[in-house]
Every structure is written in structure tokens, then in C-alpha cells.
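// run 5 | inverse folding | seed 20
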């Protein structure tokens, strides 16, 4: 759910180089720090959130997202508001796979709600389509025995301002070059995405998109992701001490997208509005201290200080998206859901089902 916190920050006026200081651990300062959409205090000063990926320090919207830093996103969600983040996720079709209401707790941004890959892929497809969300469709037309064809149109609406979607794609594209997926490489065309590793390695995800196709990979144990975590597991004959979004789901997404798009001409993302999103406002990086005269004379370098304050068959769903170009007023016109099953054996059990997603 970190992507929806990022989108909320952009909607509320933050720029791409605005940032926050993230510690090694995060605790809500008070019960009133986070409020759900009913206005109830749901902060938990007794719980410490830690980092499964990334490291603490000063992080911007870009670097915090690229490195998927849990404590950064807790700070960011505290700043933009839990309820606004929940509303952003709902506007992009996010819902629980079991049909229950989304759980609105302070760790919402870290992925506490069990969702399915189709739902997540559709949300990312809306970013690819410059803000136009279309509900997933399994059937686009039916031809009867007499040859008569009935076609079904998707239900589409604008969920995001196009400029916000473009800025989100700009940040998420850096995940392949500067972030958690840099070790896996890109797919030979413009692409954007986000790894997800839930607290304690309960599940691992990768969701991403090009301007033409979006997909999501979910990995988790259907026996119960909290009880059977992704630690000390063997997948496809390879042992993993812990599974993160970039270690298994990311490569599955990459290889599938390469094959799915091999006959599709690459399409670029729409450039962002630099005057609106580049730079920083009130969250600019701290200035480096100037050297004093003794340091200038001796060439000595001050000792840096750091302040740290006390988280088969995997399902892979892709959603093909339309794209609203600069010279077209047409929104997404159709969505097709496709399914790939990827052979992966985990402790001699085939895994299916749903899991939480960041």
C-alpha cells in the first residue's frame, strides 16, 4: 500500500524531492497520531515498526519509495493522514479479497489487508492509463453458435488527475534503476513498479506496469501467511533465508512482461510537469554544515554522526490497459485480465491464494 501513500502525498502538494527523516524504528508519538476514517484514534505507541528493506536516514518521495523503507512510509502516512491514504486506495479499486472492509490501522501503508493480484494490477493499470481506472473484466465479448457477437464495455472512471499519475509513474520507474529492482534489471522498455515485503516476511509482492500493460505477482502461504512466513523456504530448488519482493516476485514479473510484450512496440511515459513536481518545498534536505576555519586550514574532515530512532504457483495477474495520449481525449476503452501460472515449488507445496500487499 506504499504506492497509495505516495500518491496521497503528491495529491497534497508534496514535490518529488520533499523528504522526511526515517529512523531504524518507528513508533507513533501518541494514540491520536493516526485516526481512521471514523475519526477514532488508532495510533499505537507501544508498537515499533522496523525495516525489512532499505535503510534509515533522510529520504525523499523518490528515495524512500525506491528503497521501500517501512519507517519512512510510516512517517509519510503520519504526515498525509491515514484516512486520506485509505481513500486514495479505495479510489483505485483496492478492496480486501475476503469482501470485508479494509482494516484501517496505522500500518495500513505497510500492507495489512489481504488483497488479490487482479485488484492490485487494476490499480496499477490506472496509473499507467494516466489516472483512468477500469474495473477488471474476465470476458470482453461472447460469440454464440450462430456467429452473433455481444461485446461488453468496461466500467471506467477518472480516479487520479493525469498529472498525479504521471508523477507517480516517474517515481516508480526509478525502482528499476535506483531501487529494490536494480539488481534484476529492466524489461527493455519504459516500466515502473513497486516491490512489497510485508512485516516479518509474511508475503512478498511485485506490482508494475508499462504504458500498455500492468501486472502483479503475489507470493504467500495459503495455510496462513502470518503463521507460515517466507523465511527458510525452498522455491524452485533454491533456498531462501527470507523472501523479499525483489527476490522472487520481481523476477517473475519481469520475465512474464518481457514475453507478454515481445510483439508490442514500446511506448514512453508522459513527462511530468516539472514546475509542479520537481524540487522541494518545506521538506528540503538538511544543509550540510560548513567547515570551520580549523578544518579549512588542516583539511580535516568532521566525523559523521548518525542519529537512529528506536517489518507453488504464485499468482500472476496482468491487466492490459488503454492509455490516454496527449493528442487524444479518449480514456481507457478496455481491460483484459490474463493469467500466467509460474512453476515454483515451496517446501513441496503448491501455493495459491491471497496475501497482503504493500
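// decoded
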Amino acid at each position: 500500500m506504499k504506492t497509495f501513500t505516495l500518491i496521497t502525498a503528491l495529491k497534497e502538494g508534496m514535490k518529488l524531492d520533499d523528504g522526511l527523516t526515517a529512523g531504524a524504528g518507528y513508533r507513533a508519538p501518541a494514540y491520536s497520531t493516526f485516526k481512521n476514517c471514523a475519526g477514532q484514534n488508532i495510533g499505537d505507541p507501544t508498537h515499533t515498526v522496523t525495516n525489512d528493506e532499505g535503510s534509515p536516514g533522510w529520504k525523499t518521495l523518490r528515495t524512500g519509495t525506491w528503497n521501500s523503507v517501512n519507517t519512512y512510509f510510516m512517517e509519510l502516512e503520519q504526515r498525509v493522514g491515514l484516512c486520506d491514504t485509505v481513500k486514495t486506495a479505495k479510489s483505485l479499486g483496492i478492496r480486501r479479497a475476503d469482501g470485508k472492509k479494509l482494516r484501517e490501522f496505522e500500518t495500513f501503508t505497510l500492507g495489512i489487508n489481504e488483497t488479490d493480484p487482479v485488484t492490485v494490477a487494476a490499480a496499477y493499470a490506472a496509473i499507467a492509463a494516466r489516472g483512468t481506472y477500469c474495473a477488471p473484466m474476465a470476458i470482453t465479448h461472447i460469440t454464440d453458435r450462430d456467429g452473433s457477437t455481444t461485446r461488453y464495455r468496461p466500467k471506467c472512471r477518472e480516479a487520479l488527475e493525469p498529472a498525479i499519475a504521471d508523477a507517480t509513474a516517474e517515481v516508480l520507474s526509478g525502482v528499476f534503476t535506483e531501487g529494490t529492482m536494480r539488481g534484476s534489471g529492466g524489461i527493455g522498455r519504459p516500466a515502473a513498479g513497486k516491490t512489497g515485503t510485508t512485516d516479518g516476511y509474511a508475503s512478498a509482492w511485485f506490482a508494475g506496469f508499462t504504458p500498455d500493460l500492468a501486472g502483479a505477482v503475489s507470493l504467500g502461504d495459503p495455510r496462513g501467511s502470518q503463521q507460515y512466513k517466507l523465511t527458510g523456504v525452498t522455491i524452485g530448488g533454491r533456498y531462501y533465508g527470507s523472501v523479499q519482493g525483489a527476490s522472487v516476485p520481481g523476477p517473475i514479473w519481469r520475465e512474464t512482461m518481457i514475453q507478454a510484450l515481445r510483439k508490442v512496440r514500446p511506448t514512453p511515459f508522459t513527462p511530468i510537469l516539472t514546475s509542479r513536481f520537481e524540487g522541494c518545498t518545506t521538506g528540503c534536505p538538511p544543509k550540510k554544515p560548513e567547515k570551520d576555519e580549523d578544518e579549512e586550514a588542516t583539511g580535516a574532515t568532521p566525523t559523521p554522526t548518525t542519529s537512529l530512532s528506536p517489518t507453488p504457483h504464485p499468482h500472476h495477474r496482468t491487466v492490459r490497459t488503454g492509455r490516454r495520449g496527449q493528442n487524444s481525449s479518449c480514456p481507457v476503452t478496455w481491460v483484459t485480465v490474463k493469467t500466467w501460472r509460474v512453476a515454483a515449488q515451496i517446501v513441496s507445496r503448491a501455493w495459491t491464494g491471497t496475501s497482503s500487499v504493500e
